[in-house]
Every structure is written in C-alpha cells, then in structure tokens.
Design brief:
With 270 residues, this protein is mainly beta. It is 11% helix and 44% strand.
Length: 270
C-alpha cells in the first residue's frame, strides 16, 4: 500500500488537488513507478470558492479527433465532501437545443437561461458522462473521479474574459438525459470506473481486486478516506488521504471512518 502526496494547482475560483495521477500535466512519479505505467483514472479534490466555467469534455472518439490519437475522453463523477448552504451546480441543459440556438444564446449572453441548475448537499453524488454541459458552483468541496484526461472545452465563463472553445464544446454536447442528483447509492459503476463507499466501524477486512490475465496499471485499487480516522493496513489514516493498493492486496482496517474504494474498469484492447 502506497500513500499518495497531492499536487496542488491554484485557480481563479479556488484550487485543485491532484491526489492520484500519472497524467503528464500533474504526475506523481512515485505512483507511476508503483503501478508500473499509465493509470487510467485521475482523482482530484476540488475546492470551489467561486463558480467554475461552464464546460464540456469530449468522449474518447472526439478526443482522438481533436487532440490526437493517444488522447482519452473525460467521463467523470463528483462526490460532495462539503457544501455551503444553498450551493448548487450546473448539470446539463434545461431543454434540447440545436447548435444554432446555442450559438445565438452565447452571442446574446443568455446561455445562462439554458442551463440546468441543481442544489446539492454533503454526501450527494453526480455522474458527468462525456458530452454533458456542467459547472461546479461556489461553496463546494468535491471528490472528483475521472478518466485520466485534462481536456476541457470552456463553453461560457461568466464574463471573466478567459479563452472559450465554443465550437468544440458544441460539437461535444450529447442530448442524453441528465441523471438526477441524490445521495451516493453505496456502489456506482460506469464503463470507466467503479466506486464503493465503505464504512469502518470497529474492524473491516477485504482485499483489492485480483490482477487481470495480463497485469497492468489498471489493476491497482485506490482507497480515499472520506471522513473520520483509524488504521488502514497498519498505518494511521485521516480524512482526504488516498492510498494505492496492488492487485489482490489485503485490506485490514479498524477505527471509525468511511472511505471510497475506486477501481478502474478494465478496457478492451483494440
């Protein structure tokens, strides 16, 4: 088991902590050596003191088209670690709009009227598949689990004057229905990752997922401490620490804490 050291990135709206990453834009060298290569997920803690830009991420095919053959798309999810009263975020559009209608709304500075705003609280979970219009509101602290990708197409930036990428963003938007926001269901799976919330009350024993037939970096499991404290595999742990485990490694915990088990989904090789 390896404890990972966060890489902090300050932003105009707050900051990000890249807490599990082999991505070139924020690589934890020790983690890359530990898992033996390119880990398919990127895990962050996001502190949003102000609202982030409205943005869209490409899927795998569009990322390769726009950014190069070795690019991944970005499907992600958020677990709300803390939320100020009245905190909200943007998740999807509030209707079905044509590309022409979206361009007109951007030109008229009325795109805000097309967004779907959702109030959130601590413990809520939001799934953001690629192609979803989204923005994190101020007063939120989130655990973000995503594909290992740093491609963001900024759609609208609330008048802050930063570069936007309207045409690429519009090209990436999918009209798929937006899932409702609710408390974390205990276990969640999508084509790229599985999350499971574990509550340690006294003692807990399990093991990391076994290795695949052709072992690779995607066999490694992550454990993120949500809140509380205790002992994990003989080590004292506390909130917002994250640990990487080898395939099949034993998990022995004691104390009073909760943690998120994060496992990449095995991708078919083409």
């Amino acid at each position: 088991m390896l404890g990972l050291t966060a890489i902090k990135s300050d932003k105009i709206w707050g900051y990000e902590l890249w807490i599990a990453s082999t991505h070139p834009n924020g690589k934890q060298e020790e983690f890359e050596r530990f898992c033996g290569g390119d880990y398919p997920l990127l895990v962050k803690v996001i502190q949003a003191n102000d609202t982030l830009s409205v943005q869209i991420h490409p899927d795998d095919a569009t990322a390769k088209l726009y950014e190069g053959e070795n690019s991944r798309g970005k499907t992600e999810c958020w677990y709300v670690l803390d939320a100020e009263e009245g905190a909200r975020l943007v998740c999807g559009l509030n209707g079905i709009y044509t590309a022409s209608e979206l361009r007109k709304a951007l030109k008229a500075n009325s795109i805000q009227d097309c967004l779907n705003y959702v109030s959130v609280k601590k413990g809520d979970f939001i799934y953001i598949p690629s192609g979803t219009v989204h923005a994190i509101g101020g007063g939120l602290r989130l655990l973000e689990v995503q594909q290992s990708c740093d491609i963001t197409y900024r759609f609208f930036d609330w008048g802050r004057g930063r570069e936007c990428h309207e045409e690429k963003a519009i090209a990436c938007i999918k009209d798929s229905p937006v899932r409702s926001v609710s408390s974390f269901p205990g276990v969640f799976s999508c084509p790229y990752f599985t999350l499971e919330q574990i509550f340690v009350e006294g003692q807990y024993e399990d093991s990391a997922d076994p290795a695949s037939s052709t072992p690779s970096a995607e066999d490694f499991t992550l454990l993120f401490i949500i809140e509380g404290s205790g002992i994990l595999n003989g080590k004292k742990v506390k909130a917002e620490e994250i640990y990487a485990l080898e395939a099949g490694e034993e998990i022995k915990a004691e104390g009073d804490f909760s943690m998120m088990r994060i496992v990449p989904q095995k991708q078919k090789k083409h």
